[in-house]
Amino acid sequence: MALLKRGLSGEPVKILQAKLGVAADGKFGPGTEEALKAYQTQHGLAADGIAGPDTFAALGLPELILLTQGSKGETVKKLQTALGITADGAYGPGTAKAVEAFQAKNGLEADGMAGPVTLSKIDVFASMVTPDAVAKSQAGTVSPGAKPAEASVAGAPKKSIWQSITEFFS
Known about the structure:
- By secondary structure, this protein is mainly α.
- The chain has 9 helices and 2 strands, in the order βαααααααααβ.
- It folds into 2 domains: 1-51, Muramoyl-pentapeptide Carboxypeptidase, domain 1, CATH 1.10.101; 65-136, Muramoyl-pentapeptide Carboxypeptidase, domain 1 (Orthogonal Bundle).
- InterPro entries: Peptidoglycan-bd-like, PGBD-like_sf, PGBDSf.
- This is Peptidoglycan-binding domain 1 protein.
């Protein structure tokens, strides 16, 4: 699942921090967690300090939405409804199979994960997941002097900004 929580670092964390109005150092620490919980509380989301698809949608960060097996919530339910399958809000094997079929039918890489590229092709998400959001979702970079976990993706083609995520220890 594509979630941001305390202990992670990378470009998606920086994007989240900037949106929350906290220091955007790319490290998800206690300050980011507090700001996120406050935002979640103010917007009727589960105030767990973990940013997932529903939080990203509420924040207007569609470039960070990546639905995979294990994802849960209203954004998953919206996807399932659009695909014409049982909308229980839990992204399991059936949802992955339906996403793969949709992707194959639409000339996309059929990997069963619904990120910005796939979501932009689904009518109910098209107004939120714009071409700009798709471009941002693929803009992940690895900085010089990256830790080994980050460096392992340095030579890989950038499919997703999520490739910049790593854990940090304070």
